[in-house]
Amino acid sequence: MAKYKLDDIDHQILDILIDNTRTPFTDIAKKLNISAGTVHVRVKKMEEAGIITGSTLSVDYKKLGYAFIAYVGIFLQKTSQTKFVLERINEIPYVTVAHVTTGKFNIFCKIRAKDTDHAKQVIFDIDDIEGVYRTETMISLEESLNDKKRLMHSIFKDM
């Protein structure tokens, strides 16, 4: 992996792209008073260095009818079953995030569902996976913080 040192212009480009990955390079260039070619070259270098690894699309799941969020801690009978269980979890589309963890749970998941009945079915599907000993569920009442920029600005200050 190429070593690439970020400067203030790179930070500003990343800042704009974090807000909206679809911002045209020409718009970024105008905001930063640089050429679109410069933006293109810098983004390309950050991609080649592995700093930028694609782009994401934000979806408002509430508007699609999937406002219910729960977190499910999964206890396994044996830690050696982790890979198998993760493969089965991956088959459940309503499990949107899964982490192998230390501490209380072997695996920690985020699920999205239509409502409590739907969430219950998803949790039962997880419980039915061979190797799952039990689960513990926490319901999200509200996502109060989801700010990628604060972390990025902190990283910039440390560089």
3D structure, described in words:
This protein has 159 residues and is of the alpha+beta class. The protein has 2 domains: 50 residues, Winged helix-like DNA-binding domain superfamily/Winged helix DNA-binding domain (Arc Repressor Mutant, subunit A), CATH 1.10.10.10; 79 residues, 2-Layer Sandwich (Alpha-Beta Plaits). 40% of the residues lie in helices and 19% in strands. Strand 2 and strand 3 form a beta hairpin. Helix 1 runs antiparallel to helix 6 and helix 2 packs across helix 3. The longest helix has 13 residues. The radius of gyration is 20 Å and the shape is elongated. 13% of the residues are buried.
| Counted beta strands | 4
**What about the largest sheet?**
4 strands, antiparallel
Report the end-to-end length measured between terminal Cα atoms.
Answer: 18 Å
Might you state the CATH topology name of the largest domain?
Alpha-Beta Plaits
Q: Let me know the CATH homologous superfamily of the largest domain.
A: Lrp/AsnC effector binding domain/regulation of amino acid metabolism (RAM) domain
Report the helical percentage: 40-55%
State the helix count: 6
Low-confidence stretches: none
Radius of gyration: 20 Å
Strand content: 15-25%
The neighbouring-strand order within the major sheet is 2-3-1-4
Task: Tell me which CATH architecture of the largest domain applies here.
Answer: 2-Layer Sandwich
How many structural domains are formed by the residues? 2
Shape: elongated
Q: What is the subunit organization of this protein?
A: single chain
